[in-house]
């Protein structure tokens, strides 16, 4: 008899990473341009001398630091191997087969994957006509089997946001036993004061979890470290399903050094925010529909032309991220790289 894998994994979608093409500009993975901050790079180099040791299994120094930064007891913090690992730990901690996980679609492509790995069922709620979360429809999608709702704010890949008033109304109506995970991977790029900091809700509501990452604004995508703040009993279970030592020692050191360099990070984000507006304005002037974005990328809802647009960009040495039949997501980068993209976009005749 041959090896028998789980039959339900045959339909598991593969995570599609942004492509890296030698010689082309990569605007496909929402990475930060400019490399790690100099002080962070130095801390990583110094920590390299200790990699023969196992990392701190509890990631205690970083968890303590985050607890102090946000004013939560450390028991409420879990650090993971990127926040995508925490998304998976969260579904594993909450769901048994047959349970339902609600999220918007299109949203972060890891949600259906981690849901299925946990044996749970994805309930995809279409975005509204402005490419934003339809929170009322998400409420209506809750059933007795619903355990978890992901709300990606700003949403990947559309960049759209849910604002305070709408989120409060939503959270007020979610049953208290259903967990709402606010995925704030792009929080540092939010410039609109009406977009609430999820920590506000984590402080006052015991079914809210906030997910953050060092991969985007902090520029540590290659090191894999993110964190979660949630109610203590849930956070404890999230830590229990952690793959031992998966947050490596360089990642722990680099994350702490990054927190020391927060002012520099904020300056970098401010540049991205300025460029984001310029790129959106130029695309609009060129005749594109550009949904409002508060993240470090823009979304072009090109529908059936998405793949063709991505091929045209690539022919112009710019890699973007296409979602077939739906749209194209373009990461905001340096002025020169954005200009290269704009030139490609303006010469697209599809
Ligand atoms: C990039 C991203 C993450 C997590 O990234 P990690 O590198 O795993 O920390 C989580 N959620 C969304 C929506 C993202 O775009």
Automatic annotation (TrEMBL):
<dbReference type="Pfam" id="PF00155">
    <property type="entry name" value="Aminotran_1_2"/>
</dbReference>
<comment type="subunit">
    <text>Homodimer.</text>
</comment>
<dbReference type="InterPro" id="IPR050106">
    <property type="entry name" value="HistidinolP_aminotransfase"/>
</dbReference>
<keyword id="KW-0045">Antibiotic biosynthesis</keyword>
<dbReference type="InterPro" id="IPR015424">
    <property type="entry name" value="PyrdxlP-dep_Trfase"/>
</dbReference>
<feature type="domain" description="Aminotransferase class I/classII large">
    <location>
        <begin position="25"/>
        <end position="343"/>
    </location>
</feature>
<keyword id="KW-0808">Transferase</keyword>
<protein>
    <recommendedName>
        <fullName>Aromatic amino acid aminotransferase</fullName>
        <ecNumber>2.6.1.57</ecNumber>
    </recommendedName>
</protein>
<dbReference type="GO" id="GO:0004400">
    <property type="term" value="F:histidinol-phosphate transaminase activity"/>
</dbReference>
<comment type="function">
    <text>Aminotransferase that catalyzes the conversion of aromatic amino acids and 2-oxoglutarate into corresponding aromatic oxo acids and L-glutamate.</text>
</comment>
<dbReference type="InterPro" id="IPR001917">
    <property type="entry name" value="Aminotrans_II_pyridoxalP_BS"/>
</dbReference>
<keyword id="KW-0032">Aminotransferase</keyword>
<comment type="similarity">
    <text>Belongs to the class-II pyridoxal-phosphate-dependent aminotransferase family.</text>
</comment>
<dbReference type="InterPro" id="IPR015421">
    <property type="entry name" value="PyrdxlP-dep_Trfase_major"/>
</dbReference>
<keyword id="KW-0663">Pyridoxal phosphate</keyword>
<dbReference type="InterPro" id="IPR015422">
    <property type="entry name" value="PyrdxlP-dep_Trfase_small"/>
</dbReference>
<feature type="modified residue" description="N6-(pyridoxal phosphate)lysine">
    <location>
        <position position="216"/>
    </location>
</feature>
<dbReference type="InterPro" id="IPR005861">
    <property type="entry name" value="HisP_aminotrans"/>
</dbReference>
<dbReference type="InterPro" id="IPR024892">
    <property type="entry name" value="ArAT"/>
</dbReference>
<dbReference type="InterPro" id="IPR004839">
    <property type="entry name" value="Aminotransferase_I/II_large"/>
</dbReference>
């Amino acid at each position: 008899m041959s090896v028998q894998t789980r039959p339900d994994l045959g339909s598991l979608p593969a995570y599609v990473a942004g492509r890296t093409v030698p010689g082309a500009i990569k605007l496909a993975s929402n990475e930060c341009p400019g490399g790690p901050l100099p002080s962070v790079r130095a801390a990583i180099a110094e920590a390299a001398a200790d990699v023969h040791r196992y990392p701190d299994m509890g990631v205690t120094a970083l968890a303590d630091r985050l607890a102090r930064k946000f004013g939560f007891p450390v028991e409420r913090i879990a650090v993971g191997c990127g926040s995508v690992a925490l998304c998976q730990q969260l579904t594993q901690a909450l769901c048994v087969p047959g349970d339902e996980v609600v999220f918007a679609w299109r949203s972060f492509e890891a949600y259906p994957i981690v849901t299925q790995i946990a044996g749970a069922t994805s309930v995809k709620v279409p975005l509204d006509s402005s490419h934003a979360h339809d929170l009322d429809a998400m409420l209506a999608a809750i059933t007795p089997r619903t355990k978890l709702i992901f709300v990606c704010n700003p949403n990947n890949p559309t960049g759209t946001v849910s604002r305070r008033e709408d989120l409060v109304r939503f959270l007020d109506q979610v049953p208290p036993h259903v967990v709402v995970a606010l995925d704030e991977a792009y929080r540092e790029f939010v410039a609109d004061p009406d977009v609430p900091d999820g920590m506000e809700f984590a402080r006052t509501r015991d079914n809210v979890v906030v997910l953050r990452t060092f991969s985007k604004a902090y520029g540590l995508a290659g090191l894999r470290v993110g964190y979660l703040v949630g109610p203590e009993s849930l956070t404890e279970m999230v830590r229990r399903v952690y793959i031992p030592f998966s947050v490596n020692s360089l990642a722990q050191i680099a994350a702490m050094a990054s927190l020391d360099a927060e002012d520099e990070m904020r300056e970098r984000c401010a540049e991205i925010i300025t460029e984001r507006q310029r790129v959106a304005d130029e695309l609009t002037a060129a005749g594109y529909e550009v949904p409002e974005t508060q993240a470090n990328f823009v979304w072009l809802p090109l529908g059936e032309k998405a793949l063709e647009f991505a091929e045209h960009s690539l022919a112009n040495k710019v890699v973007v991220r296409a979602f077939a039949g739906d749209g194209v997501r373009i990461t905001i980068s340096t002025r020169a790289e954005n200009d290269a993209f704009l030139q490609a976009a303006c010469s697209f005749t599809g």
